Amino acid sequence: MTLWVFGYGSLVWNPGFEVEERVIARLPDYARSFCMRSIHHRGTDENPGLVLALDAMQGAACEGVAFRVEDARSDAVMAYLRDRELVSSAYVERELEVELRGGGREVAVTYVVDPNHVQYCGGLALEEQAQIIARAHGGRGPNSEYLFNTSQHLDDLGLGDADLNWLSTRVRALL
């Protein structure tokens, strides 16, 4: 079975694995938002940052990128993704059907937020998100860098996200 991975945040601009094919894709019934506190990659226990996650939401949809992985690399890619994405168990690994731009559907490994996890923080006001992102820094660098890279790459792909664009402008002003 061919491995597909759905990226909606940092995987869009930094998958960290060799990709055989990239296709714009849409995941129904999930919304991308800064709804997960980051205590490893973009923040610390003392000063958590925020990272994007997919929150289940009937009627919503998230546009991102589906990555097809060469069969021979599937096991290595899955090991890498689990090490990267499941570091605190706030994400849950799911196999969800995505709609590929241009037609077709594929089942893709997708990391969604566990709304019962202590790091879940859905529903924060955009201004509160901006204040957190502007000051947080973790093992992979400033939280603002994560926001700016994700927002810019989504824009470059024609998948601009109004909330991310607002946050980018506001965080730049705060910095």
UniProtKB/TrEMBL annotation:
Pfam families: ChaC. GO terms for molecular function: glutathione specific gamma-glutamylcyclotransferase activity; transferase activity. Its EC number is 4.3.2.7. GO terms for cellular component: cytoplasm. Gene3D superfamilies: Gamma-glutamyl cyclotransferase-like. InterPro entries: ChaC, GGCT-like, GGCT-like_sf. Keywords: Lyase, Transferase. Coiled coil: none annotated. One of its GO terms (biological process) is glutathione catabolic process. The keyword Transferase applies. SUPFAM superfamilies: Gamma-glutamyl cyclotransferase-like. PANTHER family: CATION TRANSPORT PROTEIN CHAC-RELATED, GLUTATHIONE-SPECIFIC GAMMA-GLUTAMYLCYCLOTRANSFERASE 2. This is glutathione-specific gamma-glutamylcyclotransferase. It comes from Litorivita pollutaquae. The lineage of its organism: Bacteria, Pseudomonadati, Pseudomonadota, Alphaproteobacteria, Rhodobacterales.
